[in-house]
Amino acid sequence: MRFDVFTLFPEMFTGPLQESIIKRAQERGLISVHLHNIRDYAAGRHRITDDAPYGGGGGMVMKPEPIFAAVEAVLGDEKGVPVILLSPQGRLFTHQVAKELSRHPRLALICGRYEGVDERVREHLATDEISIGDYVLSGGELAAMVVIDAVTRLLPGVLGDPGAAFEDSHAWGLLEYPHYTRPAVFRGWGVPEVLLSGNHAAIARWRREQALRRTLERRPDLLERAVLTEEDRAFLARLGWPKTPESDKPT
Ligand code: 9D3
Fold first, then answer.
1. I want to staple 215 with a disulfide (CB 3.0 to 4.6 A). Which of 17, 37, 174, 243 is the partner?
2. Is 59 in the pocket of ligand 1 (CB under 6 A)?
3. Spacing of C-alpha 52 from chain mean position
4. Model confidence pLDDT, tens digit, residues 55-71
């Protein structure tokens, strides 16, 4: 997978991409990340990349010419490359979207700054628009790094691979069960007895119930779409799920 990133702040990417899984994926030739400074494609002695909004109001808007020039110079006549604008107005980035993007051999990512980019970039250059969630970032750079990280993890060979099948059936079904490691007692806080019992069936049941309990408490929205067995449903029923309008009323 080749990522081409268009940004006014390429140096923001150097730290995060030089560690851990992303670093190793680059070293092994599984991905490459090419950073392009939009300012290098801006005209004039001052290489201006932003301007005041037509119609007035505060803030600045990224000019279209340097962004078009950068993307067109880098992509050349290669067809079918998704050109993704990172913006607060994009579709929400999820595991499903990451999987969809991971099927392409190449992605272009445009990082906005200021109040946003000229609408003609969205209309005539970008083929997709992505947001990573409902909070305000200072620009698209951190969002682009999130996309690169999540997509890279899904590529064959990156995690050493028993991942692939597991990823598909389990990712974002339920929240995870609690994990413990040595010591068995830390500051007086013990590890649940069942995990020390050696009873693998009991351990599997406990973990499943913990995952169900935790998902119900923190992310009940995930339960609606999760693949649940009859045993799961029986356990959840004891916790009062699914919630009926009737069971919501005070008694
Ligand atoms: C005042 C209205 N704001 C829109 C919600 C303006 C605004 C805020 C933040 C305009 C641009 C930005 C910069 N953010 C991004 O470029 C961005 C982003 C984000 O802020 N949240 C989640 N995902 C993303 S992807 C790009």
1. 174
2. no
3. 32
4. 999 999 999 999 999 99
